[in-house]
Amino acid sequence: MSDLQRCVLVVDDEFLIAQGLCLQVEDMGLNVCGTAATAETAVALAQAHRPSVVLMDVRLRGKGDGVDAAIAIHFTVGSRVIFITGSREPATMDRIGMDHPSAVLFKPLFGRQLQSAIEAAMTG
Question: CA-CA distance, 3 to 77, in Å (whole number)?
């Protein structure tokens, strides 16, 4: 993963949530290399910017979901993916498990959950 950039890609179809995640990432002293609301845009941005970490919502706009995007990003770029979801449904969790995520966080996020997950993904 040495060719990955020390930046974070934020993927969430809810603008306010995406912006909140961006602010948290920037408060950690990290760069946000882009935001995406669709799986297609997420994959394109990941291929263009090669982020070390992707924060990925499961439900996205358009064709495909966050798991589809994460699998494509993992296969083509090698970024570590942290899923951030509001769903604890077994079917959703099974789909997330298909990508071997670095972490799965549940909305709403509390305290240092995000920072700890990002630090672990970047050092792991």
Answer: 9
